[in-house]
């Protein structure tokens, strides 16, 4: 019998890009999850199969052997998974072979935290299979190490939200603070399908900030104020204000040059269809946008995004972080 664990994807509601410079951001776990099924093997090999990426490979004495799919892609996608497994085995002094099957409902490379959701679910599943005490803090730390393989120096936002769920206020110098959000936050996520480089977008903002410091400073102060106002809006269950703040936040990001035509089409379509607010989420330059709407308008916003060329889905806040599904 194997163990199945799952972990949620995320959207950044407010504060992307500004967070790099120490400003606060609000991140939300959404009800799209990545699943990992883990079983023991008789030998010491690590076999990994990703259902949605159609990749199969195994590690023999640390060397990756491809069984099915693109070698370059398998190396890239399976490296953090192997790192997560190694860290669990090392931490708990185990030496075993494992079969891992990954099935993710999270679009890949869209800024929704798919790699962290996969790493968190793998970490929890391996821990549960080996019957080791695995507090969420440990899952977070191991997921963060795995994310370093993918992103170099990640902020820690994705591992934290995949592990703990709910809504988090994140700031570089103070870390994470859980936000007690009682209200439902009905969203439509629209994927432009345009691949983007986070690094390139971050560089773009850095260059602009250095070139026009007097112009950039008030933009960054406004971004901070948006996050603080949003925290109050959560307390007041005020969807209207959240929508307005999302629109202002997007305008600031647009001013920094990180939106693009593919995002603008979807954002404008969502607003025309009755969204309370719409903005890019994540790095920009493609990837995904989010639209906040009342429940009765969700379908029309979804259809409008689809007509504008996006691939949309309805998403809701989930308070469930990483969890064991069976086993």
Kindly list the characteristics that best describe this protein.
nine-stranded mixed β-sheet, alpha+beta, Alpha-Beta Plaits, 327 residues, four-stranded antiparallel β-sheet, 2 domains, Ribosomal Protein S5, domain 2, 13 strands
- Straight-line distance between termini: 7 Å
Largest β-sheet summary: 9 strands, mixed
What structural class do the secondary elements suggest? alpha+beta
The helix/strand series, from N terminus to C terminus, equals: EEEEEHEHHHEEEHHHHEEHEE
The helix content is 40-55%
| Poorly predicted runs | none
Q: What's the Cα radius of gyration?
A: 20 Å
Fold topology:
Blueprint: E1 3-14, E2 25-41, E3 46-50, E4 55-60, E5 63-68, H1 71-91, E6 97-104, H2 114-129, H3 136-151, H4 157-164, E7 167-171, E8 175-179, E9 187-191, H5 198-211, H6 213-235, H7 239-255, H8 261-272, E10 277-281, E11 288-292, H9 298-307, E12 311-315, E13 323-326
Parallel strand pairs: 3-6
Antiparallel strand pairs: 1-2, 1-13, 2-6, 2-7, 3-4, 4-5, 7-8, 9-11, 9-12, 10-11
Helix pairs in contact: 1-2, 1-3, 2-3, 2-4, 3-4, 5-6, 6-7, 8-9
Give the structure's gist in a few sentences.
This protein has 327 residues and is α+β, with helices and mostly antiparallel strands.
